[in-house]
Amino acid sequence: MLWKTADYAGWGRALRATGEIARPERRRALDDILKDGLVPAVGMRRSYGDAALNDGGRVIDMTRLDRMLAFDPATGVLEVEAGARVGEIAAAFGPKGWLPAVMPGTGLATVGGCIGQDVHGKNHHHAGSFCQHVAGLTLITAEGSVEVTPEGTPGLFRATAGGLGQTGVIAKARLKLLPAKGDVMVVTERRVEDWDEHIARLDASEATYTVGWIDATATGAVLGRGILEEGETGSGLMPKRVRNRRVPIDAPHFALAGPIVRAFNNAYYRRVPASGRTVVRPIGDFFFPLDKIHDWNRLYGKRGFHQFQCVVPLEAAPALRDMLDTIATSGLASPLAVLKRMGQGRAGFLSFPMEGYTLAVDFPNRAEARELIRRLEDRAADAGGRLYFAKDSLAQGTAIRSMYPELPDWQEAVAKADPGTALATDLVRRLNLRSTR
Amino acid sequence: MNSTWIILGATSSMARAFARAVAAEGAGVLLAGRDAEELAALAADCRLRGARMAEAVTFDARDARTFGPIVERAEAEEGTINAAVFVGSMPEQAAIDTDPALIDGVVADSFTGPARFLQVLAPVLEARGQGTVVGVGSVAGDRGRLGNYVYGAAKAGFATYLSGLRNRLTRAGGHVVTVKPGFVDTAMTWGLPGLFLVAPPEAVAADILKAVRKGRNVIYTPFFWRYIMLIIRHIPEPVFKKMKI
Ligand SMILES: Cc1cc2nc3c(=O)[nH]c(=O)nc-3n(C[C@H](O)[C@H](O)[C@H](O)COP(=O)(O)OP(=O)(O)OC[C@H]3O[C@@H](n4cnc5c(N)ncnc54)[C@H](O)[C@@H]3O)c2cc1C
Ligand SMILES: NC(=O)c1ccc[n+]([C@@H]2O[C@H](COP(=O)([O-])OP(=O)(O)OC[C@H]3O[C@@H](n4cnc5c(N)ncnc54)[C@H](OP(=O)(O)O)[C@@H]3O)[C@@H](O)[C@H]2O)c1
């Protein structure tokens, strides 16, 4: 059967959709589907909100078009189908001394999804965003299949990078991999006592990969405490991986209740000795720590959860601190929060990154949490920051317009590539992204 | 590891997962099927994952002329030659009920085609004194059901054939693994109603590889299908004939 009717959800499981899904297993099947008109493509639906949902409409699940097609060791360019997962590429190429230049916090994200959100990794401050390492891509638009490159078709490229799938279906891409010393990570972890130290250490970090884990339940003098993780690739042998675990059923609501989360965070913090430590880890463990627990999103129960992620300019760090303070004192406990310093790198009109600090926090899907997130969103906007489309599920269109000043450029290119708005998704409709007013 | 896997029906996603798993261990793969373009893409993928050699070869279960050249190509490789059969087709039973001629195709794809191929290959395995054959049957072959009894019959025939081939190859140092998958998330089952506990193809491929290593004879995958089928096989015929499962 070509089309399957299904009820499906974003990663946060708070937003859902019902509609028909096709999952072509061969390239020709994809072309056949698109002959009758464009349909939005989705990857592993690791976007938390509704970027990969099309309620009442159709989507194409790209995850079976996932083959690596060619690699040139002289240039490091890998040609790969859009449904391939980043973690698979890392696993195949790490041992040969190459890694995807940018990897998000889950190895299950597809190449198409990473382009559609122009994702960032723990090396954003050096390497920039995912699409800055895309040498070109094959895009199926209303006018048929086109080759899109940053130099040859800059407008269409910038509209596709971080373009939420609105310019067409990405069939394959050419990725510039980065040389790596090997497929293990040498990781230095140290405790960070409070917010100011966290910011100072992030600013001072010279490591290739840097990330701060924040205990978002710590308040007062220890607000912003956590673990700073710095990593470099290295070579060596690692013990065999332990089996992945799976969350088999939806957890009851109390699973992530305040005291449990606080205890967990405390343990996570104390795990690292006061003097810090350097450990060797498999690349997967460092880059994709949560992938070891399959379907961990079910820990939040049936109602699901939201992730709030914003980035604010460097000078707005105090505003971000105040936001964290509000989060911590709200008691709407969320396990681990992530703090990162970002560089300027971004490749598309709607790319998320800006030079500054980004904070990401999870909240169970409850009325108080939604209310809090809305307030946080306003404050991010006031601080000159922006929200991330890969995470957002609650924002409104008006706020987004000031955050993404290049929206009109994107709209112009998108209108050309998909004049019939056949590619609109729930997110695009919720935020009214494709309407010029 | 100096081994070569002939993979029949390599465009199946179950076969793709299996080919990748053996490629990652450095084996050579001969990817056999009808869709040259797709097989070429998979061959490139297998090479990039570590296959010593990966080539697409033409195979049509309904055309015995395609069998010999594949076996010859495999013989050119040194070391162990193995084969894994993923070919099969399952038209809707209703379509077969209206057009009985479809039966010939189902039986050729799921049973007689692969069996004829394996007959050509068997002497090579015997001569080398080693090699494993993996035959993918189905739980549908364990009992004829209203919903797909022609497909089930072909799979049952194939399972019996594999049992005999095991008997034969064991004498010469070879081995045969019969695989009976339950529901697997592939093109064959996409969108079909009434499925439950659907397994990802990667999990099935991992089970198969484990069974090959351990020299298992017959496996159900995922494992719990052994118990489901144990119950289904033991329902007395007078009761079973009235059931709709
Ligand atoms: C645990 C976890 C950690 C994460 N960490 C990070 C992080 O560190 N940094 C970061 O930036 N993000 C992070 N994310 C977000 C994630 O990287 C993005 O949501 C990414 O887009 C997910 O990829 P996907 O394949 O699931 O895409 P989906 O969510 O399925 O789709 C994302 C968008 O891309 C479009 N799209 C997908 N495939 C195609 C295609 N072939 N052609 C055209 N359009 C397409 C879709 O239409 C949609 O708009 C994280 C997510 C999780 C769950
Ligand atoms: N999916 C399940 O739930 C399930 C359960 C139990 C058993 N199985 C068995 O598992 C195996 C793999 O199936 P699948 O689920 O992955 O479905 P699939 O995608 O339909 O795979 C069937 C494979 O058989 C090939 N094939 C069919 N007729 C052929 C012919 N005449 N000549 C050459 N190749 C032919 C197909 O090749 P083309 O690309 O050329 O068509 C394809 O590679 C099959 O034997 C199936 O019966 C499946």
Looking at CATH, the homologous superfamily of chain B is NAD(P)-binding Rossmann-like Domain
Largest interface: A-B, 20 and 18 residues
Provide the helix percentage of chain B. 40-55%
Strand content of chain A: 25-35%
End-to-end distance of chain B, in Å? 44 Å
Widest beta sheet: strand line-up of chain A: 16-12-14-13-19-20-18-21
The gross shape of chain A turns out to be: globular
User: Approximately what portion of the residues of chain B adopt beta-strand conformation?
Assistant: 15-25%
What multimeric state do the chains show? heterodimer
Which structural class matches the secondary elements of chain B? Answer: alpha/beta
CATH architecture of chain B: 3-Layer(aba) Sandwich
Strand-and-helix sequence of chain B, N→C? EHEHEHEHHEHEHEHH
CATH domain fold name of the domain at 68-181 in chain A: Uridine Diphospho-n-acetylenolpyruvylglucosamine Reductase, domain 3
User: Total number of helical segments of chain A?
Assistant: 13
List how many beta strands of chain A DSSP finds. Answer: 21
CATH architecture of the domain at 68-181 in chain A: 2-Layer Sandwich
Q: Please give the CATH class of chain B.
A: Alpha Beta
Low-confidence stretches of chain B: none
Cα-based radius of gyration of chain B, to the nearest Å = 17 Å
